[in-house]
């Protein structure tokens, strides 16, 4: 399988290469793509060095699959060019996610919507992926009525420059480019991405829209507050879920424990619950603090943690590629 990784030098791109290697994806030829200034540099993959090529060179090489993590502008310009050349694009930006004719896929939930005519496939937002991995099985069983999400997001979601800002602030080095409007160390910013006219951030709007498309269900309400915190291992989410139907708490935990890709960590008497420090580098979605909302019936509180660079981005994209190959869709 000839596969291009577009954005190969970025944080997610680097994790994509790692995940492709770890999962032994059938790569016969790797085509790393990055900005013009990186052309000619090398990336490592499976013990070999691969030269970074330009976008046009990669298009001309006609890879079967191109996995993009290069931002929406680049994807809007170049994903269609790859597709026209016969390549199937899996894009990690928000560019195509809500396009009616583009599929938005978490393989454990809706890979079945994919066909061989899908030439640009959207990878959902990281905070969406970990959320729907938990919402979907509970929705199937108990029927969602309303979901309230508060996120606590890793600086890795913003990128290397944000990680550099945090690490510099930790050691008191103020001579570093500020990615955020304020210090992030010893702070919490109720802003992930820019604000829209309705005073929600783009991140919050993604969380409010994407789950309904992935789950093919717009019968429930969802609101979100997305917060950036000085963490590097993954995103955390406090979720309040009101169902149409009553539930049994032990059954909820059993359903989640039996959901592929989800791990229940819930033993508060022994201080067992998910934390980003311990989810970093893992592909599972960890859920804990599962308890009834004592303020109203048919309502549940829980806590979800996942590595936003892995299941939240790279691993989910590679799983989509695996599904395409396994089902002869490329
Ligand atoms: C963030 N989910 O965390 C967004 C994009 N990765 O900033």
From TrEMBL:
Coiled coil: none annotated. InterPro entries: Asp_semialdehyde_DH, Asp_semialdehyde_DH_beta, NAD(P)-bd_dom_sf, Semialdehyde_DH_NAD-bd, Semialdhyde_DH_dimer_dom. The keyword Endoplasmic reticulum does not apply. The keyword Cytoplasm does not apply. Its EC number is 1.2.1.11. Pathway: Amino-acid biosynthesis; L-lysine biosynthesis via DAP pathway; (S)-tetrahydrodipicolinate from L-aspartate: step 2/4; Amino-acid biosynthesis; L-threonine biosynthesis; L-threonine from L-aspartate: step 2/5; Amino-acid biosynthesis; L-methionine biosynthesis via de novo pathway; L-homoserine from L-aspartate: step 2/3. Residues 2-117 form the Semialdehyde dehydrogenase NAD-binding domain. NCBIfam families: asd_B, PRK14874.1. Homodimer. This is Aspartate-semialdehyde dehydrogenase. It comes from Chryseobacterium suipulveris. The lineage of its organism: Bacteria, Pseudomonadati, Bacteroidota, Flavobacteriia, Flavobacteriales.
């Amino acid at each position: 399988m000839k596969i291009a990784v577009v954005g190969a030098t970025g944080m997610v791109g680097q994790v994509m290469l790692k995940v492709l290697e770890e999962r032994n994806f059938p790569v016969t030829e790797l085509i790393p793509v990055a900005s013009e200034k990186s052309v000619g540099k090398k990336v490592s993959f499976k013990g070999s060095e691969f030269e970074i090529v330009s976008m046009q060179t990669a298009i001309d090489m006609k890879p079967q699959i191109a996995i993009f993590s290069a931002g929406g502008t680049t994807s809007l310009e170049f994903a269609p060019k790859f597709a026209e050349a016969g390549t199937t694009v899996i894009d990690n930006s928000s560019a195509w996610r809500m396009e009616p004719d583009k599929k938005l896929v978490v393989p454990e939930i809706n890979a079945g919507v994919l066909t061989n005519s899908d030439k640009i496939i959207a990878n959902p937002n990281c905070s969406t992926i970990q959320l729907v991995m938990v919402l979907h099985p509970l929705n199937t069983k108990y029927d969602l009525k309303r979901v309230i999400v508060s996120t606590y997001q890793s600086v890795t979601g913003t990128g290397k420059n944000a990680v550099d800002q945090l690490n510099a602030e930790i050691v008191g080095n103020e001579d570093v480019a500020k990615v955020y409007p304020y210090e992030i160390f010893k702070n919490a910013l109720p802003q992930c991405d820019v604000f829209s006219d309705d005073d929600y951030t783009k991140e919050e709007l993604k969380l409010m829209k994407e789950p309904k498309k992935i789950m093919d269900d717009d019968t429930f309400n969802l609101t979100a507050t997305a917060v950036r915190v000085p963490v590097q291992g993954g995103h955390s989410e406090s979720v309040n879920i009101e169902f149409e139907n009553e539930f049994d708490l032990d059954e909820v935990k059993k359903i989640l424990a039996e959901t592929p890709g989800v791990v229940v960590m819930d033993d508060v008497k022994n201080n067992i619950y998910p934390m980003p420090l311990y989810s970093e580098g893992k592909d599972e979605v960890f859920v804990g603090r599962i308890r009834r909302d004592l303020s109203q019936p048919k309502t549940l509180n829980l806590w979800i943690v996942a590595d936003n660079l892995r299941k939240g981005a790279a691993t989910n994209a590679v799983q989509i590629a695996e599904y395409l190959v396994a089902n002869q869709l490329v």
